């Protein structure tokens, strides 16, 4: 099947200069040569799941190559923010990245963020897995951008985290006038709006201050880990709306990938596969662990009723999926409608 954001220039130049000065950008490679790559995660410090994942990939690659291939790893904000890192990955100034798929280069990647694409863990793993039907759609899109898709890194279903008040339906969200931060990635703001909230696109580094100063009343579309870990002192409620399945992608600059011989590609791909498989086994338990911990620390965890969920699913799919077809194209959306999970009657 053929399936066919604003950036801070100064910080990008700074990040790129640092990378080049440190000598981490890749050169032309031949079989048997030593290689030194750089890999970054846009979110998470070295103790986070994302941080541990990139460190483990680097460790596995170095071990399997007997020290011939090394990967320098960088954690959240160490060499730039999410969008600038993605820009540098596309340009080849960094080689690998664990990132939320950004739609700034091709809005068709918005298919990865379509709301209510999967409605439960089993369906989500079938959809977003390395061999899932969604991979057939996104691999050629990443290739058009100049990136090699190596695999997914699932977290779980996102929700709406707020202070003072909460909503479990479109009407409640409208009545309360709740403003929530949304990732500036299509169609996440549109999804939150269709749920009845006021969506305010804000970069991750500015979320805490935005909640603290009242610019927004909370956060949206993240698993509870992020809202508990970073904003627990500000937020009171987490409504598990499950409107999006939160996951990251392992990506490699395509020029760097194609310059490798088959053996070295296999070493990197196998290392990512090991980490991806481990995460698929652990993601659900990890999410449940943080749900429990957040409740123990005073955050109220709320699951909408079946009726409330059905109302959101119907409204959001109708509004956002139809709007998405203009950006994603009919062929992509036909594949989505043919494969997406149908709500239980």
From TrEMBL:
Gene Ontology annotations of biological process type: transmembrane transport
Domain of life: Bacteria
Signal peptide positions on this chain: 1-30
Keyword Transport attributed: yes
Keywords: Signal, Transport
TM stretches of this protein: none
Key word Disulfide bond present: no
Family, per entry: Belongs to the bacterial solute-binding protein 7 family.
Protein name: TRAP-type C4-dicarboxylate transport system substrate-binding protein
The organism of origin for this protein: Halomonas ventosae
Biological classification of the source: Bacteria, Pseudomonadati, Pseudomonadota, Gammaproteobacteria, Oceanospirillales
């Amino acid at each position: 099947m053929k399936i066919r954001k604003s950036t801070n220039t100064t910080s990008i130049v700074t990040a790129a200069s640092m990378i080049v000065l440190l000598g981490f950008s890749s050169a032309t490679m031949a079989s048997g040569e030593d290689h030194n790559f750089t890999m970054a995660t846009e979110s998470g410090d070295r103790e986070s799941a994302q941080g541990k994942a990139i460190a483990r990939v680097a460790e596995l690659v170095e071990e399997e190559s007997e020290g011939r291939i090394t990967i320098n790893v960088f954690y959240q904000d160490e060499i730039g923010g999410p969008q600038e890192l993605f820009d540098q990955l596309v340009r080849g100034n960094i080689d690998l990245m664990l990132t939320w798929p950004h739609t700034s280069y091709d809005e068709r990647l918005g298919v990865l963020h379509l709301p209510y694409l999967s409605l439960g863990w089993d369906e989500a793993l079938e959809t977003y897995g390395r061999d899932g039907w969604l991979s057939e759609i996104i691999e050629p899109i990443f290739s058009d951008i100049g990136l090699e898709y190596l695999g997914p890194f699932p977290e779980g279903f996102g929700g709406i985290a707020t202070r003072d008040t909460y909503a479990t339906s479109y009407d409640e969200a409208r009545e309360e006038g709740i403003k929530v931060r949304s990732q500036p990635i299509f169609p996440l703001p549109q999804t939150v709006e269709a749920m009845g909230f006021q969506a305010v696109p804000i970069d991750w580094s500015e979320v805490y201050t935005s909640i603290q100063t009242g610019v927004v009343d909370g956060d949206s579309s993240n698993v509870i880990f992020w809202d508990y870990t970073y904003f627990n002192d500000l937020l009171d409620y987490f409504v598990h709306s499950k409107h999006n399945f939160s996951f990251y992608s392992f990506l490699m600059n395509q020029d760097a990938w194609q310059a490798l011989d088959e053996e070295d590609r296999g070493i990197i791909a196998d290392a990512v596969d090991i980490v991806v498989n481990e995460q698929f086994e652990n993601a659900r338990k990890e999410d449940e662990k943080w749900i429990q911990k957040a409740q123990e620390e005073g955050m109220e965890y709320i699951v909408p009723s079946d009726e409330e969920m059905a109302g959101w699913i119907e409204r959001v799919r109708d509004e956002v999926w139809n709007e998405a077809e203009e950006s994603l194209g009919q062929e992509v959306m036909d594949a989505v409608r043919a494969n997406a999970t149908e709500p239980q009657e």
